[in-house]
Recover the amino acids of this structure.
């Protein structure tokens, strides 16, 4: 039960049933005049009306023109920036830098609250292991530990030291739960997850977010084991509120309550609303119309109703709305500051992932004739999905590059568009390439192809962009490829042709400058992949922390036509044939989770443990020396994966349990240390209890999954 102040108890005692229901609704994007009237009618929450002045008018109506004078809660999807647009969340995860993510969230909170926004529907902490799902762009990728760490950092940035601060907004952990595992990668689709997977994968980032003080949690659109989440008492109440003690607000997603009707579990809207509130929902996004109120009140338990109202009013109290409902209109931030631009540019740089640099073409040398080609050469579509239209726009890479290299002859030929099936411009790009010393190919998917309701069945570069890559490769002119995207893409058809490839994601307002920084070597592309990049859509879902199979593959398969080839005439190749692989695909992904490097190079010493054997409830210190073996300062991301050698359940082959991004000067050595204990070695049972089983654990330490060194620690029996 939410701790309730005397003020909140007094208000609830005075409220009519209609006023209580009004507090449990957020109006979904109404016209300004309609919203003002709804506030007079008792609506408790609204979406942001796009200015501090308009927000103050809403608050004036609520405070001065309603019977109890309860201020409204103003919400908005501040996903990766308000005025200054930061890299998309998936790119922020690629930084492996939680302190930076916290700074970005604090910046977004300050800008948003200055305009009257008090409540954001962010961060998204869904574990996303299917890149066909468009909303992977909105979260932190496939890994439980990375997602949990970034969720904690973002919540801390949004909340600051106090929700009452004029620079803080209330964070919402979404979407509860398992929304990131839709069948077929299709948004809003069914999810069926075991208790084991729920506890150890999908619920864990939410548990961390609740422990970090998330002010609210948003229910997801999907079903879990047949029960839509907006009416799932077992998860919304039994786990979230009772087991974890969550005392904040559970908010529905847009029209999520109404969706219970097409889900097939509610007869009408009153039935849907009653089921949702009984399950543990506190605020409906969209708002039940007044005509269903009587039917709803006839079904909803009054104790449950008062609990929901108390949660909403308590959040308003925590935000200081009762004492100061208004914002200073003169202090509203309507454009980025220089400091904000520097921060988001640094984030865009640190999120860039160097996939390969075979011929060391990057950073670019002092080439005299440079061709920029591909749709992202001149496009300003760098902001990414879930960027509000009032955010600061981005410039073009062509303009930024030309301003930075006035000494060079910079040609710009788009070659192809993002989506059009038109290759007539490729010939001009090829001709320009032959007259150039180097070509920079700027390709990717536009922002609109990722985000909500943006699932894709084909993850190759859209349009004729791959044809452009192959045509440039045939010229023999050296070239590098920069990919802007909101998800992992399939690059297997052309990746071997490209010597150097960078993933720049959708980098926000400062994306163009950051990309040029990386290309020219003014900054290192030292991000790491937060999601696995598949070789083929047929591999999906493909993720590194998969459970062990009884017949693991050691090589890829081969299409065969004779019984002799498949091992039926002898035992020699039976073990290779009958393994978990595809006959028509090489083993493993194109690029694994955590993959990436930079222009600086590093070596790791042998990992050391403070003890080789520990008891349960004890921890051990793991240390490794990181040496910069290059002539330039750079960042390494040290990753620690655990392998449970023998367990009572089939464990993941490896599981990230710790990481640290470390800056090392040229020729210097830095020691990086981690505490490894129960949270890192254990797993959760179906009832949520954390267990650490005795036995040997291999700790794999390195710069990526395929570059690690093992060291063993044993947990002794009691």
């Amino acid at each position: 039960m939410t701790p309730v102040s005397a003020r909140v108890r007094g208000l609830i005692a005075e409220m009519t049933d209609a006023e209580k229901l009004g507090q449990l609704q957020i109006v979904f994007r109404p016209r300004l005049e309609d919203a003002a009237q709804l506030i007079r009618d008792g609506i408790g929450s609204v979406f942001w009306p796009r200015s501090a002045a308009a927000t103050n008018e809403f608050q004036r109506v609520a405070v001065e023109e309603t019977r109890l004078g309860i201020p409204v809660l103003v919400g908005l999807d501040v996903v990766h920036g308000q005025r200054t647009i930061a890299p998309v969340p998936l790119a922020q995860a690629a930084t492996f830098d939680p302190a930076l993510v916290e700074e970005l969230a604090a910046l977004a909170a300050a800008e948003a609250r200055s305009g009257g926004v008090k409540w954001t529907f962010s961060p998204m902490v869904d574990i996303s292991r299917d890149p066909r799902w468009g909303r992977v762009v909105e979260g932190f990728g496939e890994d439980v530990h990375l997602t949990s760490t970034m969720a904690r950092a973002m919540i801390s940035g949004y909340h600051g030291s106090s929700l009452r601060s004029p620079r803080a907004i209330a964070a919402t952990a979404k979407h509860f739960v398992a929304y990131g595992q839709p069948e077929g990668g299709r948004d809003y689709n069914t999810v069926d997850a075991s208790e084991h997977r729920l506890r150890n994968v999908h619920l864990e980032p939410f548990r961390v977010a609740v422990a970090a003080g998330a002010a609210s949690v948003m229910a997801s659109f999907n079903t879990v084991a047949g029960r839509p989440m907006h009416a799932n008492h077992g998860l919304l109440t039994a786990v979230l509120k009772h087991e974890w003690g969550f005392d904040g607000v559970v908010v529905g997603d847009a029209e999520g309550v109404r969706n219970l009707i097409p889900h097939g579990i509610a007869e009408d809207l009153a039935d849907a609303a009653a089921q949702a509130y009984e399950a543990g929902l506190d605020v409906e996004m969209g708002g039940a119309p007044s005509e269903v109120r009587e039917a709803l009140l006839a079904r909803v338990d009054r104790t449950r109703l008062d609990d929901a109202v108390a949660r909403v009013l308590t959040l308003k109290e925590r935000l200081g709305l009762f004492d100061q409902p208004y914002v200073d209109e003169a202090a509203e931030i309507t454009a980025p500051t220089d400091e904000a631009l520097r921060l988001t540019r640094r984030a865009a740089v640190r999120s860039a992932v160097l996939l390969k640099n075979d011929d060391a073409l990057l950073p670019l040398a002092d080439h005299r004739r440079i061709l920029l080609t591909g749709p992202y050469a001149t496009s300003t579509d760098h902001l990414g999905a879930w960027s509000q239209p009032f955010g600061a726009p981005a410039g073009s890479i062509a303009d930024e590059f030309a301003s930075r290299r006035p000494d060079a002859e910079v040609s710009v030929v788009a070659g192809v568009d993002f989506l059009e099936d038109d290759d007539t411009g490729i010939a001009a790009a090829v001709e320009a390439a032959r007259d150039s010393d180097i070509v920079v190919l700027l390709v990717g998917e536009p922002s609109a192809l990722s985000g909500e309701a943006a699932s894709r069945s084909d993850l190759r570069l859209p349009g004729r962009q791959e044809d452009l890559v192959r045509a440039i490769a045939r010229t023999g002119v050296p070239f590098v490829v920069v990919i802007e995207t909101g998800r992992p893409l399939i690059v297997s058809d052309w990746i071997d042709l490209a010597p150097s490839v960078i993933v720049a994601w959708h980098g926000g307002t400062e994306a163009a400058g950051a990309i040029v920084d990386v290309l020219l070597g003014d900054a290192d592309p030292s991000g790491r992949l937060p999601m696995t990049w598949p070789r083929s859509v047929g591999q999906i879902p493909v993720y590194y922390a998969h459970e062990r199979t009884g017949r693991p593959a050691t090589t890829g398969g081969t299409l065969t036509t004779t019984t002799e080839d498949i091992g039926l005439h002898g035992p020699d190749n039976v073990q290779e044939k009958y393994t978990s692989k595809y006959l028509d695909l090489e083993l493993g992904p194109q690029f694994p989770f955590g993959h990436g490097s930079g222009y600086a190079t590093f070596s790791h010493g042998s990992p050391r443990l403070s003890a080789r054997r520990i008891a349960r409830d004890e921890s051990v210190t793991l240390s490794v020396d990181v040496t910069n073996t290059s002539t330039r300062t750079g960042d390494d991301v040290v990753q620690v994966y655990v392998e449970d050698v023998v367990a009572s359940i089939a464990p993941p082959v490896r599981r990230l349990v710790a990481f640290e991004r470390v800056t090392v000067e040229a020729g210097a050595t830095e020691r990086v240390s981690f505490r490894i204990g129960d949270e890192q070695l254990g797993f959760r049972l179906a009832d949520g209890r954390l267990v650490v089983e005795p036995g040997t654990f291999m700790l794999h330490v390195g710069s990526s999954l395929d570059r690690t060194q093992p060291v063993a620690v044993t947990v002794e029996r009691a």
Remarks:
- The longest strand covers residues 634-644.
- The mean pLDDT is 95.
- The CA atoms of residues 699 and 711 lie 5 Å apart.
- The domain at 338-520 is CATH 3.40.50.1700 (Rossmann fold).
